[in-house]
Amino acid sequence: MSICKNDPVRFILASVLVLLLLSAMPAAMPGLTGTSGLRFVINDSSLMAVPAELQNGCSMVPVQHFSQVTGAAYAQLPSNTVSLTKGNMTLNLTPGSLYLVSTDGSQTMPASPYIKDGLTYVPLRCLCEKLGIAVQWNAETRVISLTSEDSRDGMSAKALLSKASAAAASRTACKVTSRSHSRIFQSDGAILSDLTIDAQEWIRQHPYAVYLDQQTRDNQTGLATRHQFIVTDKHIFSKTGESSWLASASGVNGLMAHRDEIAAKSPEDPAALSEARPVCLFGDDAIYEGKPCYVIKQYDSPAVFQQNLQAFLPLLDDTAAGEDAQTLIRGMTFQSFRTIYIEKGTYHQAGSVIFEEIAIHAPSQDTPYARFHIESSHHYSDAGFYAPEGVPGL
Predict the structure, then answer these.
(1) Among residues 213, 262, 261, which one has the least CA distance to residue 238?
(2) What average pLDDT does this structure show over 204-222?
(3) Which of 134, 169, 253, 294 is the most buried (most CB within 10 A)?
(4) pTM (two decimals)
(5) Contact yes or no for 126/113 (Cβ under 8 A)
(6) Residue 273 phi, psi (nearest 5)
(7) Given this model, what pLDDT does residue 348 score?
């Protein structure tokens, strides 16, 4: 399901669907040792935390995180090669190789990229410098300062997102086409699940309704399954294959009774300097699906996820959710990296590319026993609402 970050109800629905699926720099920066974490200040206004490791004296970070803190676009090429592009500079690097191939030639990196838990780690400082990004390190606070462009046509990222949100509210109906690749890893790196999901989603604002049609392929077994969902102001119904429609479990329907109460909660200022708030920064303008677009990078920290969870956990049906589900949800940590494409002129969201990581911890265990990696793309278009005949709740 596509998610509007300004709609806490849709955040809740996406979280519940996760439960449903569960049931069915060249020199090291001083002070960084071993496996640790770094924080980045972007344009002196946004703070985000990033996992980091020390390899051969170099600070290594996951390429998805690198893309977000620098504004560089990245793509996965054959043989696990990673391509990073910012402005007129493109960098290509391959796990296990010290060679960095760029627009203006090639050079040797101080440490080679590597893959760990499904993430590709890359050397931070040398790539930043190659992209023309100045890096300032504060060893006392363990914060790295980066500078990037902070406005588009006189608007801040926050103002542009606000304008896009207003345009979305004026849209009475739309269609979202998406594809996602979801993998679940054990703590030892073994793959528990590998799924590809193709989906079509029709959304109507008044009266609120969503019809979601998903085709899920298990890449380990080759098995394909169809899942359908109907979401209204009051209910969620689901259907698997040719079976009958069923009212959703996991306390969802009781939760929907509090929809207005949840939607009325005022989000905090996203520009506030805090690890708990989303980060927005600009990327280079791009042509997306044939449309000229503004590009915004957005980050949601684990603290954002936990704050949203705490807001709706008390509203779950105790009889449906149970203590086990409550413990499971509280044991999750979640972070999301999103590239948002907003059409110039109309300010409609044209699409997005998202990387999300969810870690699930057993009670009293420091390390997660399972970790989700989800990469997805979403395409938005104007379309009338559609749902098959005979579905419940409409």
Answers:
(1) 213
(2) 93
(3) 294
(4) 0.73
(5) no
(6) -80, 95
(7) 93
